[in-house]
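The freezer alarm interrupted the setup, so I double-checked each line after restarting. Inputs confirmed:
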Amino acid sequence: MSDPWASDFRALREHTRRGAPSVERTREFVLASAKTPEPEKEKNMSFIKRRPALAIAIALALIAVLTPVAYAVVNKVFLSIDPDQSEEQIEQDVKRQLDEAGVATTGVTAEKDGDKLRIGIQSDDPAAELPELDVNVRGGGKPGETLGQNRVQIEAHCELSPEQMEALTQVVSSDEFLAAVVDRHDRTDAEVAAALREVLRRHGFDHTDVSVSGQGVAVTVNAPPT
Amino acid sequence: MRRAATPAWDELLSLLTPIHDQAVLFARRIARSSADGDDLFQEAVVRAGLKLSTLRDKERFRAWFHQVIVSVHRSRARRGFWRRLVSTDAPDAARQVAALAGEDGAALADEWAAAESAARALSSLPPAQREAIVLFELQERSVEEIAEIQRSSLSAVKSRLSRARERLRRHYAASERLIPIQEECHE
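Predicted 3D structure, all chains:
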């Protein structure tokens, strides 16, 4: 019996041949690159499609599907996310919802990683103020059913490079950070806030304000990581 | 700012030409879309041009260039969360189907749907497993070649392929769960 993906893979094999760049096109590209010597980093960027710079205030949403935690930032737009959809479907769905809400974004990313689903929303307009995202994650594949969520709002009051933003993402999606948010045991809000500040500090984010109120956590990054 | 070594573009082109199409397809198949794959391939070409002087045995160019693609792929996967954008255009596959619908629209639509399904399944795999399964299943490379490209041991590649297949099985099983429900309706 053949693998269930055999026929899909055959189709992909053919599909990826369509419109593939020819060797002549690559040759033209290479020759064009040779005529315009640049430092390596800039050459990479000029070669590939230029990616918009990240805005200072960037919306960061991270939703844990099984350990329900939602991360979002700034004003009020309601987003409904179905974690059973593929990454591409979620991206397109979120993009559509943001477009309909009049939120100017240049990109939406969704990545599934085990029981977590990360949503990233970008803007290339540094002056743009992205609204707060009220994120509703449907759980268990049952339409309309919403998982209870802890919410972490993250706001950057300083300019962070893409690498620093990624580092911040890694910290707030780390097991130790999530554990402190979800498994509070008998700790007070102030103790949870101190624990989260300590996690951030250990990862170089020394200048942060963290406040915890019930299921809401607000993190403000005041300076880039050291 | 540090300046890169002068790339050996002519030499790169002569080495790249015989394996060009194969390498493009590899990049397209491990990327999330053909457009991403073309970006990945181009970035790999630039990096290869800058690093070509480090390749002593030019006979190894094919494996070496695939290593560069793998390296760029991993690097893009790491930074991808913040850099990757959703195109506001229609998916390129849909455009191709629409453009060619006059010739054989139904067959192309079927191919597109199946290719989309394969791409979704592949995107559920971590980068290293995706590369291994694409090289093995779609590029028909041996385990030995994959080990060289991924700079891994044979046993690591075999294990990676096994884990990738298991994940693919789970992915396809999950996507077919509705079938028994439909059967019950007919009873």
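Quick read of the result. Chain A has two domains: 6-47, 60-221.
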